[in-house]
Write a structure and sequence with these properties.
The protein has five helices and no strands. The chain is an all-alpha fold. The longest helix is centred in the middle third of the chain and has 31 residues, at about 100-130. The protein is globular, with a radius of gyration of 17 Å. The chain starts with about 70 loop residues before the first helix and ends with a helix.
Protein backbone atom coordinates (compact mmCIF):
# COMPACT_ATOMS: atom_id res chain seq x y z
CA UNK A 1 0.00 0.00 0.00
CA UNK A 2 2.81 2.35 -0.82
CA UNK A 3 0.71 4.63 -2.99
CA UNK A 4 -2.86 5.59 -2.24
CA UNK A 5 -5.72 7.70 -3.49
CA UNK A 6 -6.34 10.87 -1.43
CA UNK A 7 -9.35 10.62 0.90
CA UNK A 8 -11.79 13.50 0.39
CA UNK A 9 -13.08 14.86 3.70
CA UNK A 10 -15.16 17.99 4.32
CA UNK A 11 -12.58 19.02 6.96
CA UNK A 12 -8.97 18.43 6.01
CA UNK A 13 -6.51 16.65 8.27
CA UNK A 14 -3.14 18.29 8.95
CA UNK A 15 -0.15 16.98 6.99
CA UNK A 16 1.16 14.79 9.82
CA UNK A 17 -2.13 12.87 9.77
CA UNK A 18 -2.05 12.14 6.04
CA UNK A 19 -0.13 9.27 4.50
CA UNK A 20 3.10 10.29 2.78
CA UNK A 21 4.03 7.08 0.99
CA UNK A 22 7.21 8.59 -0.45
CA UNK A 23 8.54 8.98 3.11
CA UNK A 24 7.62 5.43 4.21
CA UNK A 25 9.35 2.08 3.87
CA UNK A 26 6.15 0.34 2.78
CA UNK A 27 5.01 -0.72 6.24
CA UNK A 28 1.33 -1.14 5.32
CA UNK A 29 2.44 -3.50 2.52
CA UNK A 30 4.31 -5.67 5.03
CA UNK A 31 2.90 -5.59 8.55
CA UNK A 32 -0.86 -6.32 8.23
CA UNK A 33 -2.16 -9.70 7.05
CA UNK A 34 -4.08 -9.71 3.76
CA UNK A 35 -7.39 -11.35 3.04
CA UNK A 36 -8.12 -11.73 -0.65
CA UNK A 37 -11.84 -11.57 0.10
CA UNK A 38 -11.37 -8.05 1.48
CA UNK A 39 -9.78 -6.57 -1.62
CA UNK A 40 -6.13 -7.46 -1.19
CA UNK A 41 -5.65 -9.69 -4.19
CA UNK A 42 -4.28 -12.67 -2.27
CA UNK A 43 -3.94 -13.95 1.29
CA UNK A 44 -0.74 -13.22 3.13
CA UNK A 45 0.28 -13.57 6.79
CA UNK A 46 1.23 -10.56 8.92
CA UNK A 47 4.83 -9.29 8.82
CA UNK A 48 5.57 -10.56 5.34
CA UNK A 49 6.08 -8.27 2.33
CA UNK A 50 3.43 -8.11 -0.37
CA UNK A 51 4.69 -9.89 -3.49
CA UNK A 52 4.26 -6.60 -5.41
CA UNK A 53 6.35 -4.47 -3.05
CA UNK A 54 9.54 -3.37 -4.83
CA UNK A 55 12.98 -3.05 -3.28
CA UNK A 56 12.59 0.74 -3.21
CA UNK A 57 9.40 0.36 -1.13
CA UNK A 58 7.16 1.40 -4.01
CA UNK A 59 4.22 -0.63 -5.35
CA UNK A 60 4.99 -2.56 -8.51
CA UNK A 61 1.36 -2.53 -9.67
CA UNK A 62 0.34 0.93 -8.50
CA UNK A 63 -1.26 1.86 -11.82
CA UNK A 64 -3.33 -1.32 -11.94
CA UNK A 65 -4.46 -1.84 -8.35
CA UNK A 66 -8.20 -1.86 -9.08
CA UNK A 67 -8.20 -4.19 -12.11
CA UNK A 68 -5.77 -6.52 -10.30
CA UNK A 69 -8.18 -6.86 -7.33
CA UNK A 70 -6.36 -4.66 -4.80
CA UNK A 71 -9.10 -2.16 -4.02
CA UNK A 72 -8.24 -2.63 -0.33
CA UNK A 73 -4.87 -0.99 -1.01
CA UNK A 74 -6.58 1.95 -2.71
CA UNK A 75 -8.96 2.45 0.21
CA UNK A 76 -6.46 1.97 3.04
CA UNK A 77 -4.97 5.02 4.74
CA UNK A 78 -2.31 4.74 7.44
CA UNK A 79 -3.08 8.32 8.53
CA UNK A 80 0.62 9.12 8.62
CA UNK A 81 1.70 6.18 10.78
CA UNK A 82 4.07 4.90 8.11
CA UNK A 83 6.17 8.00 7.63
CA UNK A 84 6.18 8.76 11.36
CA UNK A 85 7.57 5.33 12.21
CA UNK A 86 10.01 5.39 9.31
CA UNK A 87 11.43 8.68 10.62
CA UNK A 88 11.47 7.36 14.21
CA UNK A 89 13.37 4.24 13.17
CA UNK A 90 15.90 6.34 11.26
CA UNK A 91 16.40 8.49 14.35
CA UNK A 92 16.71 5.47 16.65
CA UNK A 93 18.70 3.03 14.53
CA UNK A 94 20.31 5.19 11.85
CA UNK A 95 17.98 3.85 9.15
CA UNK A 96 14.64 2.07 8.68
CA UNK A 97 15.94 -0.84 6.60
CA UNK A 98 13.70 -3.65 7.86
CA UNK A 99 14.88 -5.98 5.09
CA UNK A 100 18.53 -5.92 6.14
CA UNK A 101 18.23 -5.41 9.88
CA UNK A 102 16.10 -7.84 11.93
CA UNK A 103 16.30 -5.61 14.99
CA UNK A 104 14.83 -2.70 13.04
CA UNK A 105 12.20 -4.96 11.49
CA UNK A 106 11.10 -6.24 14.90
CA UNK A 107 10.81 -2.72 16.29
CA UNK A 108 8.87 -1.41 13.28
CA UNK A 109 6.56 -4.41 13.06
CA UNK A 110 5.72 -4.25 16.78
CA UNK A 111 5.19 -0.49 16.73
CA UNK A 112 3.17 -0.14 13.50
CA UNK A 113 -0.25 -1.41 14.72
CA UNK A 114 0.01 0.76 17.84
CA UNK A 115 1.11 3.90 16.03
CA UNK A 116 -1.56 3.39 13.35
CA UNK A 117 -4.13 3.21 16.16
CA UNK A 118 -2.84 6.37 17.84
CA UNK A 119 -2.81 8.25 14.52
CA UNK A 120 -6.47 7.29 14.23
CA UNK A 121 -7.21 8.76 17.66
CA UNK A 122 -5.35 11.93 16.71
CA UNK A 123 -7.27 12.18 13.46
CA UNK A 124 -10.58 11.76 15.30
CA UNK A 125 -9.61 14.40 17.87
CA UNK A 126 -8.37 16.75 15.20
CA UNK A 127 -11.52 16.47 13.09
CA UNK A 128 -13.79 16.70 16.14
CA UNK A 129 -11.96 19.80 17.38
CA UNK A 130 -12.24 21.40 13.96
CA UNK A 131 -15.95 20.69 13.61
CA UNK A 132 -16.98 21.44 17.21
CA UNK A 133 -14.56 24.28 17.99
CA UNK A 134 -13.90 22.61 21.38
CA UNK A 135 -10.56 23.83 22.74
CA UNK A 136 -10.37 20.84 25.08
CA UNK A 137 -10.22 18.43 22.17
CA UNK A 138 -7.43 20.40 20.53
CA UNK A 139 -5.48 20.46 23.80
CA UNK A 140 -5.88 16.72 24.26
CA UNK A 141 -4.65 16.14 20.70
CA UNK A 142 -1.61 18.33 21.42
CA UNK A 143 -0.89 16.43 24.65
CA UNK A 144 -1.13 13.13 22.80
CA UNK A 145 1.12 14.40 20.01
CA UNK A 146 3.65 15.59 22.57
CA UNK A 147 4.05 11.95 23.68
CA UNK A 148 4.63 10.67 20.15
CA UNK A 149 8.29 9.75 20.71
CA UNK A 150 7.13 7.38 23.45
CA UNK A 151 4.22 5.73 21.62
CA UNK A 152 6.30 2.73 20.49
CA UNK A 153 7.42 2.20 24.10
CA UNK A 154 4.07 2.58 25.81
CA UNK A 155 3.06 -0.22 28.11
CA UNK A 156 -0.36 -1.76 27.41
CA UNK A 157 -1.64 0.08 30.49
CA UNK A 158 -0.38 3.44 29.21
CA UNK A 159 -1.98 2.85 25.84
CA UNK A 160 -5.26 1.80 27.43
CA UNK A 161 -5.23 4.91 29.64
CA UNK A 162 -4.79 7.15 26.57
CA UNK A 163 -7.50 5.34 24.70
CA UNK A 164 -9.86 5.89 27.64
CA UNK A 165 -9.02 9.62 27.67
CA UNK A 166 -9.71 9.96 23.97
CA UNK A 167 -12.95 8.00 24.17
CA UNK A 168 -14.13 10.06 27.16
CA UNK A 169 -13.36 13.30 25.31
CA UNK A 170 -15.24 12.23 22.19
CA UNK A 171 -18.22 10.65 23.96
CA UNK A 172 -20.18 13.91 24.48
CA UNK A 173 -20.02 14.62 20.75
CA UNK A 174 -21.41 11.18 19.94
CA UNK A 175 -24.19 11.75 22.49
CA UNK A 176 -25.06 15.15 20.96
CA UNK A 177 -25.17 13.63 17.52
CA UNK A 178 -27.50 10.91 18.81
CA UNK A 179 -29.83 13.44 20.42
CA UNK A 180 -30.21 15.32 17.11
CA UNK A 181 -31.58 12.26 15.31
S1 LIG B 1 -0.38 -4.34 -4.08
FE1 LIG B 1 1.14 -4.77 -2.48
S2 LIG B 1 2.83 -3.33 -2.84
FE2 LIG B 1 1.02 -2.58 -3.96
S3 LIG B 1 0.02 -1.12 -2.54
FE3 LIG B 1 -0.95 -3.14 -2.24
S4 LIG B 1 0.21 -4.06 -0.55
FE4 LIG B 1 1.46 -2.39 -1.33
Amino acid sequence: MTQRQPVQLPVQLPAHLKADCAACVGLCCVVPPFDAAQGFGFDKPAETPCQHLCADHRCGIHDALMPRGFEGCVAFDCLGAGQRLTASAAARFGDADWRARPQVARWLFDAYPRVRQVQEWLASLSLAAEVSGEAGLRELAQALEAESARWPDWSPAEQAAWQARVQAALAPLAENRGSRK
